Amino acid sequence: MDKRIVISRKLPETIISPYVNTYMITMWPDEDKVMERSSLLKDVSKADALLSMLTDKIDKEVIDHAKQLRIIANMAVGYDNIDVDYAREKGIVVTNTPDILTETTADLTFLLVLATARKFVQANRYIIDGQWKNWSPFLWAGTDVHQKTIGIVGMGRIGEAVARRAKGFNMDILYHNRNRKDKAESELGAHYVSFDRLVEKADFVVSMTPLNEHTKDMFNEAVFKKMKKSAIFINTSRGGVVKEKDLYEALQNGEIAGAGLDVFKNEPINEKHPLLQLENVTALPHIGSATMETRTAMAQLSLENIDLVLKGKKPKTPVN
């Protein structure tokens, strides 16, 4: 056992047990708290492999401390938390966990569509708080989802999975993506449109785009002003694609009807976050892929990638 794996968050013993007799494993002991920066820098200096979370900032400083690091296995689809280009310069493989969480995240995304449209969270809180005294014909009346128009920005694997769910609700499907998706168009009846047309026409604007220099703050004041006043904005991609101040003002001023958010620019947020003060916001704590089955499979794939690289083989899901 001459090779060391550092794991930046506590994982179940059943997941790491197949590797404990092969590698030295250093694991952050807390499941709910981000690994402290000082501990990350210290532990990675002796590591051959790092299993990181999307909450870990793996920048040049970390990589420079990692004198013998061969792989960074990110337990997420996205990897904007990692300086991938610098890792490549240093000969470090970076992997992610695509495909595994596609259907699970699409379920959560469509849950937000339904919950925000039908004011589910607010109505649930209303009855729990003991406020339901009488039935009323327009009590917590929301808006229909079926036969409406959904606009998906970012038609990757998860975007296509969301479109399949939308088809089941007999929705018109618009999408915007860097490339046309012929299969989605032929099988799902999706229509490729410009970004501007999508935000103007969609009843539900769903962000599924990765965060990069081109998408940062792409949902801003100008975009929200183009949307229908009855439109609902959904984001299960990355918080950084939204200018939160602009979203807050659009919601507060009635420029759009509501928002369903699973991600925020700076996570975690607390109860004083401005968006949480608005009644027309449905918020979740970044749980897009949070099922036992999916998170277990993501951790297992991350460790499989590490094992392959440390044995001199190609990983299953490299990003660089």
Automatic annotation (TrEMBL):
Its EC number is 1.1.1.79, 1.1.1.81. One of its GO terms (molecular function) is glyoxylate reductase (NADPH) activity. It comes from the Bacteria. One of its GO terms (cellular component) is cytosol. Residues 111-288 form the D-isomer specific 2-hydroxyacid dehydrogenase NAD-binding domain. Pfam families: 2-Hacid_dh (PF00389), 2-Hacid_dh_C (PF02826). Keywords: Oxidoreductase. Residues 34-320 form the D-isomer specific 2-hydroxyacid dehydrogenase catalytic domain. It catalyses: glycolate + NADP(+) = glyoxylate + NADPH + H(+); (R)-glycerate + NADP(+) = 3-hydroxypyruvate + NADPH + H(+); (R)-glycerate + NAD(+) = 3-hydroxypyruvate + NADH + H(+). The keyword Oxidoreductase applies. PANTHER family: 2-HYDROXYACID DEHYDROGENASE-RELATED (PTHR10996), GLYOXYLATE_HYDROXYPYRUVATE REDUCTASE B (PTHR10996:SF283). Belongs to the D-isomer specific 2-hydroxyacid dehydrogenase family. GhrB subfamily. This is Glyoxylate/hydroxypyruvate reductase B. It comes from Salirhabdus euzebyi.
